[in-house]
Structure formats: structure tokens, C-alpha cells
Design goal:
Elements: H1 2-11, H2 26-39, E1 44-48, H3 54-59, E2 65-70, H4 73-79, E3 89-93, E4 109-113, H5 124-135, E5 140-146, E6 156-159, E7 165-170, E8 176-180, H6 186-193, E9 197-204, E10 208-215
Parallel strand pairs: 1-2, 1-4, 2-3, 4-5
Antiparallel strand pairs: 5-10, 6-7, 7-8, 9-10
């Protein structure tokens, strides 16, 4: 499934940001953006799965520094073309499931935008461990993602034995691909993330959720 997801987003690189253009989501999107900027203000941020740099471009002016990573070079090539504060943002290839360990003081925060929903439940503990290893124990974690909204979200196609929900998406070439897309409740987030973090706080508006915590 990881390979499927990687290929799916690689071929969507040129059109990926169209998902942020839906008119009905603009108010909620702006609210989340403001909250992310406030949460990451003056932090040394490790961003995972940065994609086209949509969120990097938005929070980088508030951050002290940003290292934005993704598994797809095609995504990073687009991200690198955007405007950022001078000498504050760097990009690098990295697999979330094999992140390099940080050096002491290298980062103070980790950011994951619209990534957690694509992580299988049975792999979430490993991903949290990777965040802690890469950003450092005691670092601040900020995650944002989608709520499921009937009539707006892509219909859930099936639920597997582990409780992961899946959607069918259309690729640019017209092929259909199945992707993991989970929509966790607050209680599930607290239970799962509470094993690896403390001081968990969750905010939701209609279309999006945001979670902050401190990694153990």
C-alpha cells in the first residue's frame, strides 16, 4: 500500500493543489492555516510528506527554520519553486517510515499535513516512533487532516479487518486506484497518540481537524 500511495501522489503532483480550491472549504482552511502558523511560530520544523509545499509556503514565514521532506522528487521539484523567507527552508528526500535520526537541538517541532489519514492503523505506532526519532523526544507535533463530510468527501469504498477505511481515486491517466483514507474520532486519536505523546489537544471545524502534542 505504501508504494501505491507514493505512485498515486507522484502522478498527481501537477494537479494536487486543486483540492485546496473548493469554495465551501475556504473559511475552514484559512482557520486551520492560522492555527498552524501560530502553533509553529519560531519553531525549527521538520515537515514530513510535504508534497508540493502548499503548507510549507504558508507556515515558513512564522517558523525559525524548516526542513521539508517528501518521498517523491516530483513533489519536491514543485515545492522548491515557491517563495519562502530567504535561507529559512530546505528540502530533502525522505521516507516517513525510515526517517534519519535528528541531532540534538536540530528540530523543535514536527509537522504532518494530510498524511496521518493515509497511515494504516497497524502502522501508526511505528510512524509516531519515527516522528520522535527524527524530530527528537520532547518536540512539538502538529498534524492536520480531513474530516469526513457527507456529500463533500469521496465516498468510503470499504473498511478492512483492521478498521482502515479505503477510497477509490482516479489517477491522471484515468486509472482507478484504491487508497487508505482514515477519519479518526477524537477518542481514537487520543488513545493511539497518547501512547507516544502527552499534552494532546484537538481542534475541529467542519472540514478539517488539527492535533498538537509533545512527543515522548
Amino acid at each position: 500500500m505504501r508504494e501505491v500511495m507514493s505512485k498515486y501522489y507522484a502522478q498527481r503532483a501537477d494537479t494536487y493543489e486543486s483540492i485546496y480550491q473548493r469554495p465551501e472549504r475556504q473559511k475552514d482552511l484559512l482557520e486551520i492555516e492560522q492555527r498552524v502558523n501560530h502553533a509553529l511560530e519560531q519553531h525549527k520544523v521538520l515537515e514530513v510528506a510535504c508534497g508540493t509545499g502548499y503548507w510549507t509556503e504558508r507556515f515558513a514565514p512564522a517558523a525559525q527554520s524548516v526542513v521539508a521532506t517528501d518521498i517523491n522528487q516530483s513533489m519536491l521539484d514543485i515545492a522548491a519553486t515557491k517563495k519562502y523567507p530567504s535561507d529559512r527552508v530546505q528540502f530533502g528526500l525522505a521516507d516517513v517510515f525510515a526517517l534519519p535520526a535528528s541531532t540534538q537541538g536540530q528540530y523543535s517541532a514536527c509537522f504532518a499535513g494530510f498524511f496521518w489519514s493515509h497511515v494504516k492503523r497497524e502502522e501508526q505506532a511505528d510512524v509516531l516512533a519515527q516522528f520522535s526519532r527524527a524530530a527528537g523526544k520532547g518536540s512539538f507535533l502538529v498534524m492536520i487532516d480531513n474530516n469526513y463530510v457527507e456529500g463533500s468527501s469521496t465516498v468510503i469504498a470499504r473498511t478492512d479487518l483492521e478498521g482502515n477505511t479505503h477510497q477509490f481515486r482516479m489517477q491522471e491517466d484515468g486509472a482507478r486506484v484504491e487508497v487508505v483514507k482514515n477519519f479518526p474520532t477524537d477518542s481514537f486519536l487520543r488513545k493511539r497518540i497518547g501512547l507516544a505523546a502527552r499534552d494532546i489537544r484537538i481542534f475541529r471545524n467542519q472540514y478539517f481537524w488539527m492535533l498538537t502534542c509533545v512527543l515522548k
